[in-house]
Amino acid sequence: MNEMFNLQDKIAVVMGGTSTLGSSMALGLAQSGADVVLTGRNEDKANSILKEIKQYDVKADFIKTDVLQMDSIKEAAEVIDKKYGGWDILINAAGVNSSTPFYEIKEDEWDSIMDVNLKSVMFTCQQFARKNKERERGGSIINISSVSSITPLTKVVTYSASKAAINSITEFMAQELAPDNIRVNAIIPGFFPAEQNRKILTEDRVKSIMDHTPMKRFGDPQELQGAVIWLASEKAAGFVTGSMVTVDGGFGATKI
């Protein structure tokens, strides 16, 4: 069983790897033996996370990347292809949110959120998958969605729409990339307090979330690691593609 979840000698790339959830998933992959490459904009924060990763006797690297710049995404894919000969696991964890009321949302804010949460994921997958296809090397892509992709949440209409679209392109890419032995799945986290959503967690909103969550608590970022490791493992999840794995304390199962 330990061998089934052993990711030793695998190359895991975590886009948005300096975020709360991204860094936790990176640490989980490292604990399972994967060498980890973080991407993001904050080099100081990345270096701190790299120190933690290296405690597990794996290789750790950082590539400064701006997911709003298509050339930056393409360059990251090329660097990883040349330096490591491709990748085995690709996590798309970059994301932004906003609590701007519906009638006050401006076009530039809509575009900015969609660019980070959706456009960057689409073209990251395209660039990285193309490199592995050329090498005839498969892989596992894991997109990070949200419970708001299934149950649209008040106050975060743009975010909800972007994550619903993530589910759609995940299913599309699962079909498109299957012939190249690249699996594509999504994890749907519930409420894991992080930089992008703390500002909208007012007392009333927290009460509403707890009333709708059977487990009556927020998730801990470490509780995403098991789902990530499972989907990353070819031995454990080799026949799993196009799936949405929900980790939400029962939020999505509560209908009344």
UniProtKB/TrEMBL annotation:
Entry keyword Hydrolase? no
Reading the lineage from the top rank, the first entry is Bacteria
Q: Which InterPro entries does its entry note?
A: NAD(P)-bd_dom_sf, Sc_DH/Rdtase_CS, SDR_fam
Please tell me whether the keyword Oxidoreductase is annotated for this protein: yes
- Keyword annotations of the record: Oxidoreductase
User: What protein family is recorded?
Assistant: Belongs to the short-chain dehydrogenases/reductases (SDR) family.
Q: What is this protein called?
A: NAD(P)-dependent dehydrogenase (Short-subunit alcohol dehydrogenase family)
Q: Which species does this protein come from?
A: Virgibacillus litoralis
